[in-house]
């Protein structure tokens, strides 16, 4: 599920090359599935097994009907995600984030358990560790769903760094801005870790195929990079020097002038938007971690599920809101805070959609 996104596509291509008996790819994006098929056909040709792509939503009736007519799967891999912090700006997109990241995970976990799948793998996020935003909080809730299900099926996960040039990522945005002759824009202080799509694919497959039950893999990275440095390196690679501008208007209005002199306008600003963390992290206090098993990958060992009813109360509360057809952003955030004492939400009243 979510198999036509940047990470999902990388994993699908890695699996396709290994000729599995059956490989079914589900995603809500019809266009991305078309591109995936073109990519594998153009690069690898065909496989002897059954390869299908299906533009379905895992929470809908059509997906349920498809599963009921399908043979059970050995491995179920979940790449579904609403992955942008900006999507918590209102209660409607925040509820869809919970549906995608949490409720659809519950739905597909139940299917995998009922049909005897060997393993259920789901992508998490570095933002799930000590979450400062609703995105990270929903991914942490997703991890709790995995832990609870682990007594009926083996589960594993991966906490990611930022995947360079993936759809919607900072570097993907820089590429689009340059192609459209538009300025680059980024907050100054924020630092992030980066991995490639191939590295992300390897991390997922290691966790899915080699990980133990209730284990989450993460990349052992030593250097976080600030956004200004990323923009400067990106422009250097494309033959330009970054030219900081004092305002958005200046940056927008000077593209042609500066580009003619081998410079590119950039607007770097102080971060003041809701949910931003200055630097990402992969571990929470008290988590058991193995740093010796692999040279470049760490392994978190999650504890057995706690039967305190807190997760059930959260899910029931969310479903009650959805059934009522009315809710507020604050009602959802309050339920996340009640479930996750580590949720350190940073509310400023400003969101990235108000930035260039």
Walk me through this protein's architecture.
- The structure is a single chain.
- With 356 residues, the protein is of the alpha/beta class.
- 41% of the residues lie in helices and 17% in strands.
- It has a 6-stranded mixed β-sheet, sandwiched between helices. Strands 7-13-12 form a 3-stranded parallel β-sheet.
- The protein is globular, with a radius of gyration of 21 Å.
- The model has no long low-confidence stretch (mean pLDDT 93).
Look at the structure and name the CATH superfamily of the largest domain.
NAD(P)-binding Rossmann-like Domain
> Which architecture name of the largest domain does CATH use?
3-Layer(aba) Sandwich
CATH class of the largest domain: Alpha Beta
- As a percent range, the share of strand residues is 15-25%
Secondary-structure content class: alpha/beta
* CATH topology grouping of the largest domain: Rossmann fold
User: Main beta sheet, described?
Assistant: 6 strands, mixed
Q: Give Rg in angstroms.
A: 21 Å
Q: How would you sum up the global shape? A: globular
Number of helices: 12
Mean pLDDT: 93
């Amino acid at each position: 599920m979510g198999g036509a996104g940047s990470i999902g596509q990388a994993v699908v291509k890695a699996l396709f090359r290994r000729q599995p008996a059956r490989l079914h790819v589900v995603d809500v994006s019809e266009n991305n599935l078309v591109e995936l098929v073109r990519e594998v056909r153009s690069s690898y040709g065909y496989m002897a097994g059954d390869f299908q792509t299906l533009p379905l939503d895992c929470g809908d009736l059509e997906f349920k009907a498809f599963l009921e007519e399908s043979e059970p799967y050995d491995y179920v891999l979940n790449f579904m995600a609403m992955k942008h912090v900006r999507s918590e700006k209102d209660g409607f997109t925040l509820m869809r984030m919970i549906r995608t990241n949490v409720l659809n995970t519950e739905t597909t976990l139940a299917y995998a358990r009922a049909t005897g799948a060997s393993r259920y793998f789901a992508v998490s996020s570095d933002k799930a560790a000590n979450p400062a935003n609703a995105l990270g909080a929903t991914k942490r809730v997703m991890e709790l769903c995995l832990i609870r299900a682990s007594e009926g099926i083996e589960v594993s996960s991966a906490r990611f760094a930022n995947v360079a040039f993936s759809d919607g990522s900072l570097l993907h945005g820089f590429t689009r801005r340059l192609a459209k002759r538009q300025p680059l824009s980024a907050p100054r202080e924020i630092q992030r870790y980066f991995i490639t799509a191939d590295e992300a694919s390897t991390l997922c497959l290691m966790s899915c195929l080699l990980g133990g039950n209730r284990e989450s893999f993460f990349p052992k990275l030593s250097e976080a990079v600030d956004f200004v440095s990323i923009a400067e390196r990106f422009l250097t690679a494309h033959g330009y020097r970054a030219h900081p501008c004092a305002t958005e208007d200046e940056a927008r209005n000077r593209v042609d002038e500066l580009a003619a002199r081998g410079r590119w306008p950039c607007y770097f600003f102080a971060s003041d938007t809701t949910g931003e963390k200055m630097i990402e992290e992969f571990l929470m206090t008290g988590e058991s971690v193995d740093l010796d098993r692999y040279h470049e990958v760490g392994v978190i060992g999650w504890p057995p599920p706690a039967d305190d009813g807190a997760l059930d109360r959260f899910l029931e509360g969310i479903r009650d809101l959805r059934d009522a057809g009315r809710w507020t952003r604050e009602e959802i955030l309050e339920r996340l805070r009640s479930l996750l004492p580590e949720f350190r939400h940073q509310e400023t009243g400003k969101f990235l959609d108000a930035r260039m």
